[in-house]
Amino acid sequence: MTAVAVADLKQGHVPSGDAPNILRERGQREVFCGLTGIVWLHRKIQDAFFLVVGSRTCAHLIQSAAGVMIFAEPRFATAIIEERDLAGLADVNTELDRVVEQLLARRPEIRLLFLVGSCPSEVIKLDLSRVAQRMSRTYAPDVRVLNYSGSGIETTFTEGEDACLEALAADLAPEAPDAEPSLMVVGALADVVEDQFRRLFDDLGIGPVTFLPSTHAADMPAVGPKTSFLLAQPFLGATSRKLEDRGAKHLRAPFPLGTEGTTMWLRAAADAWGISEQRFKLATAAARTRSERSLERYRESLAGKRIFFFPDSQLEVPLARFLARELSMELTEVGTPFLHRQNLDAELALLPDGITLSEGQHVERQLDRCRAAEPDLVVCGLGLANPLEADGVTTKWSIELLFTPIQGYEQAGDLAELFARPLTRTERLNV
Ligand code: SF4
Q1: What CATH superfamily is the domain 182-281?
Q2: What CA–CA distance (Å, rounded) separates 325 from 370?
Q3: Which end of the chain is more exposed for a tag (fewer CB within 10 A), N or C?
Q4: Which atom of ligand 1 is nearest to the CA of 33?
């Protein structure tokens, strides 16, 4: 379901306030809700299960976004809140207890159960945190039960991951008093990307390195004052604050998109570990060269092309920086749902002067600006892509950027190709 809501700056988002050149808009917006994050999170944490407490609409969203798995048992489901629950005629807590009991009896491999709130569960004010605490006591030590909200009232689609990781961050074990300094990479990454980063950190002499989330519930990292963390995704504001509350130190850096972003991201960790410039160059040189070469073939088709970002994934600012600086694309407008200033400062400093940066959305006004700008390529959500394509505008679905491994040196070329492909398709159709 496409959530259409009145955009507002949510509590916890740092307002852009006095920042120059930022157009702040409120109005109707077109975004997917936070339940969407389950689609990639359930693949990442392999012994977790995501139980959405929601409506048939929520169930349809997850099923259609994740695809129907015929041969594998899915690790997500929806406990449907029926009309009699909404009317207060049934005890939702009792029903939920029954559903979870059946689920855990049938799926003994589950070690981590997320109860995921939705618009309907929030409407009936179901307190899922109390339910999760109660169930955790019942099913300990075999199963941890955590909760977070994926509601469309509260979230854009990547905030589902932020809410999920915030819940995990709150639940991480404290590090041992004699723990050595460690680096935590935060954000769900494809396994192949995780392996590449692990090797690079090894070559740099940085470690131990942990990842949040880990592939298995039992391997979630510990956290405390000896932990430094790098965000792998820009939309993890609440997770970042939770980790800082737990004593961890945020290493602020641009995000690992493209050669430059990846280098600066790795360098933030290298600086914290006191790694010499010589060693840094030695450890990264080969991958950097491969990354730079992989971009060359796309530069010709992308340089000078004008791109417009509608606010959707919250990846817009780092992507805009990568496309402008490494592929010479021209930024017409960079829209983002929220600007986490403390996470994006390093990125904002790298954007070209004079671009239009917008925060929030008034979709009609933004469509007018987009048409007036006549961009070659528009990055937007699924709800806007079809009407824009019907108007002859070439689009890129922003949600694809979450389903595709794009971080790190080895993926820089694939990332560029995601933007080159729709332009090539349009050129072919126009021949
Ligand atoms: S959580 Fe809300 S916006 Fe998302 S699918 Fe359910 S009802 Fe729709």
Answers
A1: Nitrogenase molybdenum iron protein domain (3.40.50.1980)
A2: 22
A3: C
A4: 4
The string of pLDDT tens digits covering residues 144-170 is 999 999 998 656 889 999 999 999 999
**Cα–Cα distance for residue pair 226/181, rounded to 1 Å:** 5
Position in ligand 1 atom list of the atom nearest CA 54: 6
φ and ψ of 93, to 5 deg = -60, -45
Ligand 1 centroid distance, CA of 76 (Å): 15
Mean pLDDT, residues 273-293 taken together: 98
Say how far apart CA 35 and CA 59 lie, in whole Å: 10
pLDDT of residue 69: 53
The residue whose CA has the least distance to atom 8 of ligand 1 is: 1
Q: Specify the pTM.
A: 0.92
34-154 has which fold? Rossmann fold (3.40.50)
Q: How far is CA 163 from CA 3, 35, 56, 173, 217, in A?
A: 17, 10, 22, 18, 17
Amino acid at 205: G
For residue 112, list its beta bridge partners. 48, 144
What's the CA dihedral at 263, 269, 273, 275 to 10 degrees? 0
Handedness of CA 167, 170, 174, 179 (dihedral sign): positive
How far does residue 32's CA lie from ligand 1's centre (Å)? Answer: 8
